[in-house]
Specification:
7-stranded mixed beta sheet; single chain; alpha/beta; 7 helices
């Protein structure tokens, strides 16, 4: 089975149980970064790799939200959550590295804890920049290579298993890619010994 299809199958298989499996980590490490990112979204907003829709409650009420994921079952979970919350969200299946949208279509693009699990994070960030309007916001949060030396070493060891098992990279850092693509960094911060990073960047006007 091609690697891409195998990874999609992995996330399809996790869709029903993902929230329960990740609940403790979500509360302790991830939820605050989701709020940090989503509260900065404005206007026509696209969320990449939306998963089960854990970001949905954190968006401002005036955001017009479109969400994509390459897993059909994750898309279904997001649609279910949106219905429960009575949120008007357009949800569709799409690969974040090959977005089915025209250039300069969105005011904001969001990706949280997703770039660690895509085959090519540079392609995904490039697509995000392509669909953003001039001055548009790119808002990211992810676990990244730690600044603390011992934790970084443990990440490299764990990655020998996680990349093969579920395509999860523990030692990536999207921020340099964002800079290389010519986006302006508005604000950024690192937490948890540098292992979690939040980024607010902007496309040139």
């Amino acid at each position: 089975m091609p690697r891409r299809d195998r990874l999609i199958g992995h996330w399809d298989g996790l869709a029903d149980s993902y929230d329960q499996r990740s609940a403790a980590v979500e509360r302790r490490y991830l939820a605050a970064s989701r709020r940090w990112v989503c509260r900065r979204a404005t206007g026509d907003t696209l969320e990449l790799a939306v998963g089960t829709g854990l970001n949905l409650p954190h968006y401002p009420p005036d955001v017009s939200l479109t969400a994509v994921d390459w897993s059909e079952r994750m898309v279904a979970e997001t649609a279910r959550r949106a219905g429960t919350l009575s949120l008007p969200v357009t949800v569709q299946r799409a690969d974040a590295a090959r977005l089915p949208f025209g250039d300069r279509q969105f005011d904001t693009v969001v990706a949280t804890f997703a770039l660690c699990c895509v085959p090519d994070e540079r392609a995904v960030i490039g697509e995000a920049a392509r669909v953003l309007r001039p001055g548009g916001r790119l808002l990211l949060a992810d676990h990244v290579v730690a600044s603390q030396l011992l934790l970084r070493g443990l990440q490299h060891v764990a990655e020998l298993v996680t990349v093969l098992w579920q395509g999860e990279h523990l030692t990536r850092r999207p921020l340099p890619v964002v800079r290389q693509l010519g986006l302006e960094i508005v604000e950024t911060e690192r937490l948890s010994h540098g292992a979690i990073e939040r980024v607010h960047a902007r496309t040139p006007r």
